[in-house]
Design brief:
alpha+beta; 28% helix; binds iron/sulfur cluster; three-stranded antiparallel beta sheet; 9 strands
């Protein structure tokens, strides 16, 4: 996502929510004092940004039901194989093939994590956010058709894995031959839940809760790519390799 698009999203967000200056600056890459704070929780290595000049961590909590901005401005809903099975059933399709034909679209995109070291190239089946969705809409924030008038998801609890994880981004890396799941924040400018704090303690229960979701999601993504439903390649710029 370009800086301009993030700034536009943040400005829209600030019409309704107060965005702290540190959060705003981090989103726009205007801080040169950001360090990674790696925290291992269960089987996931979280990377939490810290602003060293202010000694502040940037943390997050979800503001739902007051907020459903991630569903109002949804850019893409990549599906795992498990998502395809569960959502097809939830939407009343007897045939997975029919569900894929009518309700999904192919997306291809690139993600770079917050500290700029890992670039992920992905091609997946994605859930359509509107009936007439085409490739031109890929990545463009639009209201998701599965959001109801009360701000709840009509697919819940079978909503896509990515909806359970937002605003975390996660990826799998091999460390001395052992797969390690990593997670950090996606800073797209669409979530008002970020805040600055002197202590990371407030967020520990959330990291606990999300660690199992994130781990399971990565296992589901591995199965999905292994079985040919999606393709993912990861480039670690620090190690300079795919
Ligand atoms: S994740 Fe962020 S954008 Fe989505 S409902 Fe929670 S606070 Fe709102
Ligand atoms: S599928 Fe549900 S949770 Fe996901 S963006 Fe749509 S309404 Fe929101």
């Amino acid at each position: 996502m370009s800086e301009n698009a993030v700034e536009k999203s943040l400005n829209l967000l600030s019409n309704k929510w107060k965005i702290e200056p540190e959060v705003y600056e981090l989103h726009l890459g205007k801080r040169n004092d950001v360090i990674d704070t790696p925290i291992s929780v269960n089987k996931v290595m979280f990377h939490i940004p810290m602003l060293t000049s202010d000694k502040l961590y940037i943390l997050w909590k979800c503001l739902w039901p007051d907020c459903h901005n991630c569903c109002d401005r949804q850019g893409r809903l990549p599906l795992t194989k498990d998502d395809i099975r569960n959502i097809a059933k939830k939407m009343g399709y007897d045939s997975k093939a029919e569900f894929v034909k009518r309700e999904t679209i192919i997306s291809s995109w690139q993600e770079q994590e917050i500290f700029g070291n890992v670039i992920t190239n992905l091609t997946t089946l994605s859930l359509k956010r509107k009936d007439q969705e085409t490739q031109v809409d890929d990545g463009v924030p639009i209201p998701c058709k599965h959001l109801d008038v009360n701000g709840s998801c009509k697919l819940h609890p079978q909503k896509p894995g990515v909806c359970w994880l937002y605003p975390f981004a996660s990826w799998l890396e091999s460390h001395q031959g052992v797969p390690v799941v990593h997670a950090t924040f996606q800073l797209t400018g669409d979530c008002p839940g970020f805040y600055a704090s002197k202590s990371i303690d407030d967020m520990m229960p959330i990291l606990e809760e999300y660690s199992s979701r994130i781990f399971e999601y990565n296992m589901a993504v591995s199965r999905t790519t292994r079985e040919g439903y999606a393709s993912i390649s990861i480039m670690d710029l620090q190690k300079n390799k795919f």
